Amino acid sequence: xxxxxxxxxxxxxxxxxxxxxxxxxxxxxxxxxxxxxxxxxxxxxxxxxxxxxxxxxxxxxxxxxxxxxxxxxxxxxxxxxxxxxxxxxxxxxxxxxxxxxxxxxxxxxxxxxxxxxxxxxxxxxxxxxxxxxxxxxxxxxxxxxxxxxxxxxxxxxxxxxxxxxxxxxxxxxxxxxxxxxxxxxxxxxxxxxxxxxxxxxxxxxxxxxxxxxxxxxxxxxxxxxxxxxxxxxxx
Length: 235
Known about the structure:
mainly beta
C-alpha cells in the first residue's frame, strides 16, 4: 500500500458479502490484512485512510469434522440435447456420463440433483461443499436460491437449516465437449460457419470424435462442515 490504511473493507463479488477486515500493524506502520481464501477464490479489498464505521467481516473457523451428506439422490435432466436422458435414482452423486450411460455420455445441458437430508445435531452455520463439479452449479436450499458457483471451490455458506427434511437442489450445467464429441462421432454436419475454417490447435481439420469423455454433473463428495463465525481468524 502506498500509504498506511486505517480501514480495509473486504468484498466478495460472488456472494455479495462485505465487511471490515481484521488488521494488525506491520512493519513501518503498514497493516497486515487477514484473508481467508481457498484455492481458486478471490476477494476485493478497498482501503480507507480513516476509521470506517461498518460491520466486521465474518471469518469462518471449522468446528469439528466435515460430515458427508447421505441419502437418496434424484437426478433429473431438465434442459439440453440431443435428448434428455431418463431420470436417475442413486445413493451417491456422480458424473452423469457414468450414471446416464450412453445417453448421459452424449448429453450437453443441465441436470438437477436433489437430496432431502436432516440437519446435524450441532451447529448453526455451515459450509456446504459440493466437492467436484462439472462444470458450473446453481444451488437452492429449501427453495432459497444461493449464489451461483462458477468454479472451484464449489461451496456455499449456509446459516439456517431445518431440523428435518431440508431440500437441496443442485442444477449443474456442463460444457459442450461431450455434445460436440457425439456430433462428430455420428457425422452430423454442425459446422455452419460461412467465412471461417474451424481447425484444431495443430491447424488440422477439427474432429472431436476421439475426445475423451468430460466428467459432467455433481461428482462430489458433498459435505457439511460446521463453522464458527469470528471477527478475528483463529478466535
